[in-house]
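Q: What does the assembly look like in three dimensions?
Context provided by user:
Components: two
Sequences:
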Amino acid sequence: MNMINLLLFPIIIPFFFAMILLFFKEQVVVQRVLTLIGLALSLVASFWLIATVKTEGIQSVTLGSWPAPFGITMVSDMFSAMLVTTTIIITFFVVVYSFSSIGVERERFFYYPAILFMITGINGAFTTGDIFNMFVFFEVLLIASYLLIVLGGEKRQLRESIKYILVNVISSAIFVITVAYLYSIVGTLNMADISVKIAEINQPGIVSVIAILFLIVFGIKGAIFPLYFWLPNSYAAPPIPVLALFGALLTKVGVYAITRTYTLFFVHDIGFTHQFLMILSLLTIIAGCIGALAYFDVKQIIIYNIIIAVGVILFGVAQMNTSGLEGAVYYLIHDMLIKGALFVLIGIIIYVTGTSNLRQMGGLIKTHGTLGWTYLIAAFGLAGIPPLSGFIGKVLITKGAFEADHVIGSIIILASSLVVLLSVIRIFIYAFWGTQKNDLPVRDSRTYRQLMFPAVMLVLISVAYGVGTEWLMPYMTDAANVLADPSIYINAVLKE
Amino acid sequence: MELILSILIGILFTAAVYLILSRSLLKVILGTGLLSHGAHLLILTMGGLGGTAPPVLIDGVTDFADPLPQALILTAIVISFGVTAVMLVMAYRMYAVHQTDNMNELRGNDEHD
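A: Here is the predicted structure of the complete assembly.
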């Protein structure tokens, strides 16, 4: 019975350390050390969690010892355990990157506590088994993200963060409204129990309406096609480490929530709901591709690549067969890792050249070879060149789509890989090839090495993730099985 | 009773949408306040307004009020209170820096910083 609390550790440890950090506002070094210790402990706990889930199946704990449908349940299946682990790994390296890039002023104004509170919210949203509790964890991560996006108070940050907050406040209100509608029909908030109740009434039309409402709510956060309008400008405003965290983690929480609700609740009218999801995900990919090719600003190019990836993952989810879901799980984790790495890398490019405009860069390969080759590997990984990490996810998603007879969709997915490759290679060609356009600003080479360390580590992890596919496959299969068959999840939660 | 509340919620949402679409930032924030009020009332209504007795187990009483929507509203109110406070502070800072609260003048992109 005491082991069962394990799945709360990756949520509670960052929360605990965030609270301690509030007492050390001026001691930046203490903050850095404590943040790393907290994240390392959470990482150990999350690896332990993965091992436990692998050997003993889905872990669940119902708070306050109320029996399952009544208390707030936290559930950790392989999917959420892996997402929690990935989140902590990325945060760890982005925090290391922050040491030499974010600046002491921001560090003194609760930068690290905000990150840890955000991780609390993200891990909580991944782990919770209660739909209203998910709303609460969304708010935890959003309020921390409001602080992160505005921290520093630059003119542009203030302007963009107001819009970011407004969009998210409105989507949170719709979230509450949707949960209220769902409660009026099924009379429960426990996600496993909701799934049972919807199956009992065989998903009438009103439940499909709620499914679309959930898609709107999570689609705003996860940036799917008509609802991504807020993302590019807002994400470009904060400094690079914050952008890396947002780009790698925040949209993925929305994607996770769509995946969870669309594989657990709304599985009885796939012809309508999942068709809708699939069309939107394809439009998301096309819109993202247009954006990724249109800009000459490195930040914007990678930001639009987030939108493409969201489309690819959700296309996999919309297939609702094992290959598609396995591919979606695989691609989701790949994308978190590689987006973290890419944002950190373009952060270094911007640091070295002093500009984010591609037209003013050039010839960096002569002076910064390691940066160039690391970036090239990350770019190939993003586009999915075997054996790097993007490959197997896309193969499985495409396989799932062919199995479900969605040929046009698969062709769009495959074509989008070429656009992705073009958009990121464009950065390589403009920034690293050619001749130097402007004199590089004078930079401290020690800072440069400190910035390179987390970038190289993230790229190495993503390469290992791609090369070690065979070894990771049992874990991916476990995760996809739970998504493909809701009864596994339900039995694990409601067993007592 | 549910019908009256539904109409009231509709009016709140209408007013909220009108305010959110206005140009003044302060009105937009008031609009989000009304939107969350509407959402909270909606939770109450969706839980069903029946039930005369408090949700405590007493012999012979069967007509309990549903305690869950009340708990949800309490949580949602606290959250929206906090978020509104954060938003007001940020709106003030933005006004101090940009010298305007007109959303039209806050469009901006990289070229117009």
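Follow-up: The mean pLDDT of chain A is 91.
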